[in-house]
Request: fold
Amino acid sequence: MIARARLPRDRERDLEKATSELLLALADDDFVLGFADSEWTGIAPYLEEDVAMSSMAQDELGHAAAYYGLLADLSAGDPDRIAYDRPADAFRHCRLVDHGRGDWARTMARRWLYDSANAVRLEALAGSANRPLADLVVKVRREETYHLLHGEAWLERLARHHGEPHRRLAEALELVGPDAPSVLAPLPSEALLVDAGIQPLPGAELLTRWSARIEPVLGRLGLDLPAAAPAALDPRTARSGHGAAFTWLWTEFSSVRALDPRATW
Amino acid sequence: MLPRGDPRQGDGNLEPFEVFRQEREGEPMRHGGSVVAPDPTLALHYARELYARRGESLRLWVVRRADIVELDDQDLLNPPLDRSYKKPGGFVMRDKLARARERTGQSKRTASPGRPAPADDQAGSP
Reply:
């Protein structure tokens, strides 16, 4: 049997759908992580860290707003509606940000894992054939650099203080580590995105680069990252089936808008 | 760029750091305030978030408060003896300046542009 040749118009439509999938993954990752980290506002270890953490959480929401904006341009939609009016199971963030914030060590472990993986992803996307995305990523990277350095500073501090800080950090990595590769796991439409140069590198290559980047840091600090969970690498599960912690967070961040969906803000 | 690590990391306890900021190119660094942090690296992060996150600073200096050499001995700063002889008050400059202008053929108005005209009467404080 001969497969019907795809018409160029079909391809264009498929590519647009794939691009939306990529933008939604980028947006939802930053949006959900931003909200999860903002849970520390008022209760971070000390005032300066409280301000810094809240400000960085706000940066993530800013990045998400920009990605949702690109997505809205593509679909003639409204960024606020995309962000707030979807059911919890329509979110496409990665499994790593599904975990509850836990203690400070877990939040910092997750932040560092996410920021280091995101840095590899954004580095590649800065060369995307989708110009609006590439232009945005160049700006986002300038802020993310500092988030990564902040996370790494905390990772070092916790790892180098033996006893409780090191123990809590090791436990956190044990818990969230297996889901860390979900940030870079291939999207279902990856082949199309890579072929069109919209996503310049496939997930497998991004994962190799990320490992090469984080292994020396982990080695230097005497930390172990457990093997990837199969679900974190599978395109069908890396960004779905979010679980109870996310359902709670979703109820929180959509609660004000749900009070009166037709209100003008 | 923030440093990735600092060879003089602290002992893990929070300590104060003083933050100086420059608002515009060419302006002096002015004291902005302080932050507490466990080490210089995090102190820089906090200084950035507290004194520059709204784009209000071009440059920051962060200094461990313990590294500042302080002098607050009033015997040295405000000695009890009469020190009026160290102040420039009492020197009448007006006539001297007028003579100097005559000599160089400069009128008061043509004093070199862009520079503040010298004080006309007495220099220094009363």
